[in-house]
Amino acid sequence: MKARIITHMNTQHTRELSHYLRHYAGLSARAAAASPAIQDMDLSKMTIATRGGGTYDVPFSPPLSSWAEARPRVIAMDAAAREALGISDVYLTEYAFPRGFDWVPFVGVCFYYVCAAGLPWVVPGSAAWDVLGHVFPGGPEWFRWVVKTIFGIVLAIHLVEVYLLDKWRLQKYGVARFSGLWWAWASNIFVEGITTWKRLDRIIAEKRAQKEEKKH
């Protein structure tokens, strides 16, 4: 039974092992996510190793009276760890592209970034200067002033949104910081803004509904 438990935990529950290491052993999220695996266990503790070569004892408190107690105990320990770490029991595992109205702010902000990047070429005598003189209210001088003036504001707002999405959503729903999935969502909100929150929350709501259905 011990061997089956170790094999099952190491193949199906590495996420939970990282929770144990963070909460009970005090590791950082990055260190705890480095391929955690149970090296050994007895009725009093689990010994969990990580890719970096470290080994950490996570005690059963109180000790198990038999291996039959292992399953409910590790589930309870994970629930306690997640509560302490502020991690949900629903995990975000995929990225979703903008859809419908989401494309409006996405395209709008992309257009602004293109305008900001193109300012060095908006100079007297250039084709852009001539076009803006005909189509932009106030002409090219006003265009340059507006784009330059709001650049810091736009950049600051979107960087704050990246920070808050990471803190309030991505970490809570189990997305490892700086993973591919993390970069997908962080890059998206940096461009798209507030509609990213709504789309992500819809995904989480759907996952939670599915989880509740399985319970019944």
From TrEMBL:
Pfam families: DUF2470 (PF10615). The chain crosses the membrane at residues 103-122, 142-165. Residues 2-77 form the DUF2470 domain. It comes from the Eukaryota. Keywords: Membrane, Transmembrane, Transmembrane helix. This is Predicted protein.
